[in-house]
Amino acid sequence: MRNRLYGIVWDQAVIAEIMRENAITGAHDAMNNNQDLYLNYEYLLIEQEIAQEAVRRGLCERLDVIHQLQSARRAILVKAMKADFSRNISSPPMVDMQQYYHKNLKQYAVPEAFKLQIFELDTSNNQLMTLVEQMNTAHQFDFQQLLQAGAKSVKSESKTNWFTKKQLHSKIYQALQKMKNHDIQPIRLNTRFFLVQRMSYRKQGVSPFKNVVHDILVKMKKQKADMMWQNYLQDVKKRLGYDIQRKK
C-alpha cells in the first residue's frame, strides 16, 4: 500500500515537474518572440539582483530607506483599499443612466466627420501619374495597382478613423463637401499630390444612448465609488478626532 502511495505521489510530482518545464519553455518561447517582454524580464532580474545586494549591504536598515519603504507600503494599501470600494458597486438602473445621458448630452456630441482613403502620389513617377490619369478618365481606380506602381497610403491620424474639419486641409474638406460616398478625387496641395476617396460621412449630432451606455455605466460607478471613499475618509477623521469643518 505504501509503495503504491509513493508511486502516486511520485507520479504527481513528475506531472508537476513536466508542467513546470512546459511553462518555462512556453515563457522562453514567448520572450524570444517578443523583444519588449524579454527586455522587461531582463530589467526585472537586474532590479531583483540590485535589491538583494542592497539588503546584503544592510541598506534596508537605514532610517531614510525604512521611511520610504513604509511610505510606499502605505500608499499601496490605501490604493488597494480605495479600489476595494468600487469592486462590489452594483450597476445603476437603466433609468438613471438614461437620465444621466439626457442631462449631459454635450459630452456625447460628435462633430461632422468623414472616413477616408488617402494616397500620396509621387509626381516624378511618370508611370504612376500616367496610370492615375488613365484610371481617372475611366472613373475606375484599382488601389492595389496604384500601390504597386508607387503610390503611398497615408496613415490616419485619427484613432477612430473619422476625420473632422480640424484634421483636414481646407482644400480637402471643401472637396469632400461636394463628393458622395465612394467618390474619388485627385487633389493637389502645393507640391504634393493626393488621391482622396470619401468612404463614409457622419453628420454633426449626438451619439445615441446605446453607443455610450458603457461609458455612462463606468462614469456613474466611479462617481459612486468616489462618494463612498470620501464618506469613508470623513468617518476616519471622526475616529481620529479631527474636526471635519475647519474654521477659516
Description:
- There is one protein chain.
- With 248 residues, the chain is an alpha+beta fold.
- Among the domains are: 2-60, no CATH class; 112-203, Chitinase A, domain 3 (Roll), CATH 3.10.50.
- The chain is 60% helix and 14% strand.
- It has eight helices and seven strands, in the order ααααββααββαβββα.
- The chain has helices at residues 2-33, 35-56, 63-87, 94-103, 126-138, 143-149, 170-178, 209-240, and strands spanning 109-110, 113-121, 152-153, 162-164, 184-189, 192-202, 205-206.
- The strands form two sheets. Strands 2, 3, 4, 5 and 6 form a five-stranded antiparallel sheet that branches.
- Helix 1 (2-33) crosses helix 2 and helix 4 (94-103) crosses helix 8 (209-240).
- The radius of gyration is 31 Å and the shape is flat.
Draw up the topology in text.
Layout: H1 2-33, H2 35-56, H3 63-87, H4 94-103, E1 109-110, E2 113-121, H5 126-138, H6 143-149, E3 152-153, E4 162-164, H7 170-178, E5 184-189, E6 192-202, E7 205-206, H8 209-240
Antiparallel strand pairs: 1-7, 2-3, 2-4, 2-6, 5-6
Helix pairs in contact: 1-2, 4-8
Short description:
The chain has helices at 2-33, 35-56, 63-87, 94-103, 126-138, 143-149, 170-178, 209-240; strands at 109-110, 113-121, 152-153, 162-164, 184-189, 192-202, 205-206. By secondary structure, it is an alpha+beta fold.
